[in-house]
Amino acid sequence: MNSGDTAWVLIASALVLLMTIPGLAFFYGGLVRRKNVLSILMQCFIIVCVISLQWMLFGYSLAFGPDFHGIIGKLDWIGLAGVGAAPNPDYAATIPHLAFMIFQAMFAIITPALIIGAYAERVKFPAFLLFTVLWATFVYDPLAHWVWGTGGWLKSLGGLDFAGGIVVHVSSGISALVLALLLGKRVGYNHKPIRPHNLPFTVLGAALLWFGWFGFNAGSALAADGLAATAFVNTNTATAAAGLTWALIEWWHSGSPTVLGTATGAVAGLVAITPACGFVNPMNAMLIGIIVAFACYAAVAVIKGKLGYDDSLDAFGVHGVGGTVGTLLTGIFAQKAINAAGADGLLFGNLHLFGIQCLMLVVTIVFAAIMTFIIFKIVDVTIGMRVEEKNEIIGLDLTQQSEAAYTVIE
Amino acid sequence: MKLVIAIIQPHKLEAVKRELEAVEVNLMTVTNVLGQGRQKGLTEIYRGAREAGGLLNKVRLDIAVNEDFVEPTIDAVTRGAHTGSVGDGKIFVVELAQCIRISSGERGGIAIG
After folding, report:
1. ipTM field
2. CA within 20 to 30 Å of A35's CA: A297, A367, B14, B21, which one?
3. What is the CATH number of domain A3-400?
C-alpha cells in the first residue's frame, strides 16, 4: 500500500464526481431553454444517487467481479462483499480495493449522465430513471468488464483504452444517437431557433469538466507517478489545442469565434485524449486535439444539420465522434516508450494495435446500439419514453419536477 | 389626456430621462422590451447553426400626459434619443380615456401629474 497513491486516487474520485455535478449538469443546463434547466440538473443529480447505489449493490461486481468467460463479472462482490481496505492486485496493488471501487463508481455515474444530452427537453422523468438503471446494468457494466475487467475478452485481445474513450464516450455517444433517432425531434425543432438559455452556465460547466477531467485521466494511472503526470499533461495539451482549433475553424467558417464553440471544442479535446492520454507523447496529444476539433465540428455544425436528427445537446456529436476519433488515434499514436504496459501504434510500425482498436470500436458501437434499442423499446412500452406534446411545450421543470428555475415576478 | 409610448435605444434612457425632467415630465413607466424595425436583428451562431434576425433589446417608456405636455414630451424624447441612424426608435401617441390615482381616488387630468 502506498499512501501517496491512495490519496491521489481518492482525490481523483472526488474530481470525477465534480465532472457530473456540477460540471456536466451546468454544461447541459445552460444549453437548454429556461423551462427545462431544472430537469437537466435533476437528471444529473439523481443519476449520482441512483448509480452510486447500483454500483455498490451489484454494478461493481458485474463490471469488475471475478470473470465469467470474459463476458461479465460474477456476483461474488454483491453489496461490496469482500471489497475492503486491502488492495486487489489485479487492478491496483498499492491502494485499497475500496478506493479503486469508488474511483470506478464515478465513471459509472458520468456515463449515463452524458446521454442526457441526446434526449434533453422531452423525456418523462420515470422513463429516464428506468432507462438509466437498465442502461447502466446491461450496457455499461458488461462493456466495462470486457475492456477493463480482469479476464474481459477485449482486454485480453490487447485493446487500449486508458481512461474510458470506448467504455464511457463511445458507448454513451452511440446510445445517444440511437435515442435521438428513436425519440424524434423536439417540438418546434427546425421551425424556430432553440437557443441556449444561459451560456455562462455552459462555460462554467465546461471549465469544471476540464478541471475534473484531470482526475478522470491522470487518476486512471491509479498511482501518483510519472504516468499520472503524462496523462495530466496530455489531457491539458489536447484540450487546449482542440478549444483553440474549434474557435479558429468557426472564425473562418461562420465569421465569429464563439465562446460556446471554444468550450465545445475543449470538451471534444478532453473526450478524444481520454483513451490515449497514458500512451502518447505531448506533441501527438496536441495533434489529437487539433484533429478531433475538425471531426466534431463537422459532425455538429455540418452533418447533423444535413441528416436532420435532433441530438439536443450534441452528446453524439461530441462524445460519440470524439471518443471514436480518440480510440482510432490511440491505435496510431500509442508508443511503448511512453507506457511499457501499452503497445506501439501505426506510427511506430505496428498495424496490429490499430486493428484491435477498430475491432473494439465496432463491437462497442454494435453492442451499445442494439442494447439501447431494446432498452428504449422496453421503457417505451411500459412507461412511455416521451412526454406529451402539451407538457413538452410547457416545459419539463413544471410538468416533471413541479418547480420553476427562475421567477419573473416576486 | 394622451399616452406617449416611446421605444428607444437602451443606452439612451438616461439622456431621455434628463430631457424629460428638464420639461417637468417626471412620471413614467420603463420596461425592457425586444423588437425589430428597419435596423433588423443581429445574426447569432450556436455550434454552427446560424440564426439571422434575432430581436434587439429596446427600452419602452409609457408616459401619461395632459394636452399641454404632449409636444414638450415628444420633443424631449426626440432630443434625448436621436442619433440620426435607423434603430433610434419610435414614438406613439394614443388617446387616454381615463386616469385614476389609486392612493387618493383622484380622476382625470389632476391624477396624471
Report:
1. 0.73
2. A297
3. 1.10.3430.10
